[in-house]
Design goal:
By secondary structure, this protein is α+β, with helices and mostly antiparallel strands.
C-alpha cells in the first residue's frame, strides 16, 4: 500500500532534506520515525529536495508499506518520534501510481526578507535581513521578465546536476507587508539554488543599484558569474507542490 504524507519542518538545524552519512537531514529523521511506527525499515520519496537551512511548509512524500496502521497512527506515531522541528501534518492512502515527485504539476516557494535597519531576533531563523531600504515595486517589475519558460542558467548553482536549465515559472511576485518584502514563486520545477539566486539578483534592483531591466539581461546572458549572489537560506520556505485533484490530496496541495 502507498501512503502520502504532508510534512512541515524548520530546516535551520538540518543539512537539507536529503539523507546524508555525515549529518542530520529531514529525510533521515522522518524515515527513522516512520520505521519505528511501521516496525520495519521505511524509506520516503519527496516532492522536492530542499537545501541546508531551508524550511518546508507542506513537503509531500510517499512511501510503500505493508504495515497495517490507520492514518491517525501514522501522523501521531511519527510526530512522537520526530524532533520538535519536524511534524507530519496529514497522512492518507494514495493509488500505487501516485509519485510525490513525478505527479507534481508545480512547486511553490516563498522568500521573506526583513527590511529594516535592525537585525532580526525573534524571526532570525525564518527571514533574511536587508538593512538598506528596498523598493518592492521595482523588484516586482524586474521579476516579471522571469515568468514563462526560459533557460535559467544565470540563476543555476555551479553544483546543479539537472540535465538542462529550462524551467517554466508560472508566477513570480514581490510585495511589501510592513517591514517584510515577500517573494512568491511557482514553477514546474526548480534548479539548485534557483530561487535564492533570483532573490540575490532582485536585491540590487530593490536597492536602486541596478536597473529594472538588469534582471532580463541576466536571463538572456545565461552567465551565473555576473548575476547577484545567492541569498541566505534562512529566508526560503518550500510552500509545497501542487497536484491534480484526482489524486484526492488535501486542498493545500491540490489545484
Amino acid at each position: 500500500m502507498r501512503i502520502a504524507l504532508g510534512i512541515e519542518y524548520d530546516g535551520t538545524d538540518f543539512l537539507g532534506w536529503q539523507r546524508l552519512s555525515h549529518g542530520a537531514s529531514v529525510q533521515a529523521s522522518l524515515e527513522q520515525a516512520l520505521s519505528f511506527v511501521a516496525a520495519q525499515p521505511t524509506t520516503v520519496t519527496c516532492a522536492g529536495r530542499t537545501d541546508a537551512g531551508v524550511h518546508g511548509r507542506c513537503q509531500v512524500v510517499h512511501f510503500d508499506t505493508d504495515a497495517q496502521r490507520d492514518m491517525r497512527a501514522w501522523v501521531l506515531g511519527a510526530c512522537s518520534n520526530l524532533p520538535t522541528t519536524v511534524a507530519v501534518l496529514w497522512a492518507q492512502h494514495v493509488s500505487d501510481d501516485f509519485h510525490a515527485r513525478f505527479s507534481a504539476r508545480s512547486r511553490r516557494y516563498c522568500y521573506t526578507i526583513l527590511n529594516r535597519a535592525i537585525r532580526p531576533a525573534l524571526d532570525a531563523r525564518y527571514v533574511a535581513w536587508e538593512r538598506q531600504p528596498l523598493d518592492a515595486q521595482r523588484m516586482h517589475a524586474a521579476a516579471q521578465a522571469l515568468t514563462g519558460e526560459h533557460d535559467f542558467s544565470a540563476f543555476r548553482a555551479i553544483s546543479c546536476q539537472a540535465a538542462h536549465a529550462r524551467r517554466e515559472v508560472k508566477q513570480l511576485s514581490v510585495r511589501r507587508e510592513g517591514d517584510h518584502v515577500i517573494v512568491d514563486i511557482e514553477a514546474n520545477a526548480f534548479l539548485h539554488h534557483m530561487v535564492r539566486n533570483i532573490v540575490g539578483s532582485l536585491l540590487p534592483v530593490g536597492r536602486g543599484e541596478e536597473s529594472v531591466e538588469w534582471v532580463a539581461s541576466l536571463l538572456a546572458g545565461r552567465n551565473r558569474e555576473v548575476a547577484g549572489p545567492t541569498a541566505a537560506a534562512s529566508g526560503l520556505t518550500f510552500i509545497g507542490p501542487r497536484y491534480e485533484r484526482h489524486w484526492g490530496l488535501p486542498e493545500e496541495v491540490s489545484e
